[in-house]
Structure formats: C-alpha cells, structure tokens
Amino acid sequence: MSLENKTVLVTGATDGLGKLVAIKLAQNGARVLLHGRDQAKGDRVLAEIQAATGAANLEFYRADLAVLAEVRDLAKAVTAEHDRLDVLINNAGVLGGETRQMTGDGQELHFQVNYLAPFLLTELLLPTIQASAPARVVNVSSGGQAPFDFDDVMLETGYSAMRGYCQSKLGQIMNTIDLADRLKGSGVTVTSLHPGTYMNTNMVIGAGVKPITPVEEGVEATYRLAVSPDVEGQSGVFFNQQTLSKANAQAYDEAARRQLRELSLRLSGLTSD
Ligand SMILES: NC(=O)c1ccc[n+]([C@@H]2O[C@H](COP(=O)([O-])OP(=O)(O)OC[C@H]3O[C@@H](n4cnc5c(N)ncnc54)[C@H](OP(=O)(O)O)[C@@H]3O)[C@@H](O)[C@H]2O)c1
Questions:
Q1: Residue 135 forms beta bridges with which residues?
Q2: Which residues contact 271 (CB under 8 A, 6 or more apart)?
Q3: Number of the ligand 1 atom closest to the C-alpha atom of 12
Q4: CA 36–ligand 1 middle distance (angstroms)
Q5: What would the pLDDT profile of 184-242 be if each residue is shown by its tens digit?
Q6: Judging by beta carbons within 10 Å of its beta carbon (0-12, 13-18, 19+), is residue 34 exposed, middle or buried?
Q7: Distance, CA 272 to ligand 1 centroid (Å)?
Q8: Which residues contact 64 (CB under 8 A, 6 or more apart)?
Q9: I need a labelling partner for 12 at 20 to 30 A (CA). Which of 46, 196, 202, 234 fits?
Q10: What's the average model confidence in pLDDT over 56-79?
Q11: 0.85 exceeded by the pTM?
C-alpha cells in the first residue's frame, strides 16, 4: 500500500517497536516524523532508516516526554512545519525502576511519560489531525493494566514499577475511548492496542524478562491500526495485537474516565481550575 502524501508522527521512534514501525512506514512511502528524547540517537536512527529504505522524507524531532514544556515545543514545531498529520502513533513508553520517580512537573514518571505527555501532545496536535481527516490516532498501550485509585494517582503508597506502568497504560485506553467519543463524525479515529507480550525490545530485556513475542508481530499490529483499510472506521476500541479485545473494567466506567480527563487537563496545563 502506498502511503505517499501521508504524514505520520511516531513517538519513541529511536528504538524497539517505534523504530521498526517507522521503518515500515518509510518503506511504504510515508513522510515519517520520528520522535525521540536524544538528539544524537535520533540523528543516527534517521540516517540508518534513510540508508536502509532510501526514503528522503524523514525528520527527527527531539522532546523528553518527562518534561511537559518539551511536549508543548514538540507540538509547536510539528504544527509549524506541517499543515497535515494523517496519523499520530503514541508509542514512546518507559518501564522505570523500583524506586518511585517524580518528574520536574511533579508527576509520577510512568503517569507522565506513558499517559499525560501523549494526552497533551494529542490535544495540541488535534486541530492539525482533524484538518487532515480521514486521520488516525493510535495509542500503543499494553495488556498490562491497573485501575487508578483517584485518591493516590501519583502512587505515594503502594508504588511498584509494574503498578505505575500498568496504571499509565490503562490511562491511554481510557483516553482512547473519550477522544473517540469526542471525535465521532469527524473522520478521525482513535484506537489502542497491546502490541505483544514481552517483545524483544530494550524495555523487556532491561527488565530482565525473557522475551516471548517477536517484535515484528507488534509492528504488524501497530502498522495495521495506523494505516490499514481493514480497520477503517474502528474507533474507541482496544486490540490485543490484531484481535478486538476488552480492557480493564475501569476503562468502561464513564465517571472514572471523566475524573481522569479533568485531572489530566489540569495537570497538563490545558485548564487552570
Ligand atoms: N516490549 C513489550 O513487550 C511491550 C508490551 C506491551 C506494550 N509495549 C509498549 O510498546 C511501546 C514501545 O515499547 P518498546 O518495547 O519498543 O520499548 P523501547 O525499546 O524501550 O522503546 C521505547 C521508546 O520510547 C522512548 N522513550 C522512553 N522514555 C522517553 C521519554 N522520557 N521521552 C521521550 N521518549 C522516550 C525511547 O527512547 P530511547 O531510544 O532514547 O530509549 C524509545 O524510543 C511502549 O509504549 C510500551 O509500553 C511494549
């Protein structure tokens, strides 16, 4: 399928799943905006993908998602330089250590990098995405999900890296449902997925876990949601790889989603109250 004239932003495109999805998009002719947090690594990966695919229309954008000001700058740079964005793939993610880490913005690390930063980025890019309809937002979530305790979203008690990670991943799915509702009839669809169980990437290897799923399966599943006609019109839904699936029950709790959305708007500075 030719993706000529399609512009796709892939966050966390400097390694693992995101890098391989970016390569596949480039091979199929898309203009790929690669995002990462490290300029030198980004330059290297961009050169590598250019050499491997012959693609000339690749760009790298640097932003640390643990810094909300950098997320705002990323959105500003992308919208200043592109008047269309056909697909946004929120893929960047972190699985941190067993010591709870807070960002300079005052959020628990997983909450911010995996959930709040992509929430903010998507909101800021939404006018450009809507202007490019039919367009898609794909949230790379996980089968690992844990419900929010709204009295302790920053996990001051009972923190574990897995809990922080799983809570943030459910947040992405909750936002997928909300955003899809808001965008009904706009031609913009929003989906989320579990790309694969313990794929052989840095995240899994770094955690000392034995990989199970080849990362290529995650690439196929993510690429399909991003561009395949198979899933045209599907929105607000969660896929386990390529199979429609149910998320944790909290995702379908409207009051919980509203609470998370209000909190997210406030913590990301999109509302002041
Ligand atoms: N691997 C699995 O089995 C699995 C399973 C379910 C879901 N997922 C999800 O799949 C997505 C991709 O993960 P992966 O397995 O490919 O992991 P990975 O190889 O560790 O890649 C993660 C990407 O996110 C970037 N990133 C991390 N922290 C960042 C930050 N603060 N600011 C900006 N970018 C940041 C990394 O940048 P650097 O290159 O600088 O490190 C890298 O490009 C994640 O959302 C993950 O939760 C993975």
A1: 188
A2: 262, 265
A3: 43
A4: 10
A5: 999 999 999 999 999 999 999 999 999 999 999 999 999 999 999 999 999 999 999 99
A6: buried
A7: 30
A8: 37, 70
A9: 234
A10: 98
A11: yes
What are the residues whose beta carbons fall under 8 Å from the beta carbon of 38, sequence distance 6 or more?
A: 14, 62
pLDDT score of 273 = 66
Of 15, 35, 251, residue with least CA distance to 143: 251
Tens digit of pLDDT for each residue in 88-136? 999 999 999 999 999 999 999 999 999 999 999 999 999 999 999 999 9
Instruction: Look up 159 and say whether it is catalytic.
Output: no
- Give the length of the chain: 273
Rounded CA-CA distance 138/121 in Å is: 13
One-letter amino acid for residue 77 of the chain:
A
Tokens read off for 224: 């399909």
Of 61, 159, 165, 223, the catalytic one is 165
